[in-house]
Amino acid sequence: MEWISILKCPITGSDLRSLTADEISTLNSKISQGQLWQADGKQFNEPLQQGLIAINNTYIYPIIKEIILLLKDLALTDDKQKIIPDTISDDKKLVKNFYDQRGWFADEAGNYEDAVIYEDLREVSKDYLKKCHDRVNRFLNPSGKYMLDAASGALQYADYLQYSANYQYRVCVDFSFQALSEAKRKLGSKGLCILCDITNLPFKDGVMDGFVSLNTIYHIPKDEQATAIKQLYRVLAPKGKGVVVYDWFKHSPWMNFWMLPFRGFVFIKNRILDGIGKITGTKGAERRLYFYAHTPEYFKQNLPPYQLKVWRSLSVHFMRYYIHSWLFGKQILEKIYQKEEREPEVCGLKGEYPMLVFEKQA
What we know:
The chain is of the alpha/beta class. It is built from eleven helices and 13 strands. It has two domains: 81 residues, no CATH class; 227 residues, Rossmann fold.
């Protein structure tokens, strides 16, 4: 397991090694006696089959169904003095729970609920979306050893697999065990699947030849988004390249213009529903996911140098409202795609979804 050499303990920063058979036997004895705890204080009751341990013998990290648990709260210890406070914020738990319980389960057509809710899966949009997915590959090194995918989700589109096609390993990290189970099923031995927090990546500096982070950063608490991207840059090797796909949302002047009437309608509808809820004493709809979009200026001031390119100018709502096969939808999308190709920086700044393209100098 050569890949262990790129990992580090997310709590102490020390190197990790595999547990020996004797150590696993001893730990299972402690588990049966109720003497092993997660770092968040919960008692650990499942028998261990595989795991890693920090070389200073502080914390233990289980490997369950080939998924490496390197989340602070899930570290194991037999010393109550090493228990640490819960480090997962409520906003992060909201994201984790949605994807573990709903988002990464597929329907009868094979579509994950995440895509059904948040993407445009219609035939009229299919070609345009594929070409947008393909854009990412242009800004990555064509080959290497480790391609980091943060947060990978369930690798819901086959198009995503091209980014690591000529890499030895695709290192998938995510907050959701269900997502990583799906990713591992698709990647087999090529996939290294690690449950962790991307604001505290458990990797040594400069070990990844490339990275992608697609439509994820804006689900991280706003004060930690720059931290997450800096972590991705930290683990990037010299001459490595990486791409972050972000969402400007209401900072996109083009989408603000075209979506204004629909957003006005939604605003009024929500106020009416809130008023009815207060009168009747019923609660509104529960939040599915945390979301916060920073401005382009914020990232310019708080990130390492990057190039701004376009991933996709159009929001999902724009396509659902305006793009239809009976209204020459495919032709319109092709015209928009050609404009994006001619003016990638302008479209990346004014459209919905930019790419932040990083390259670490030697």
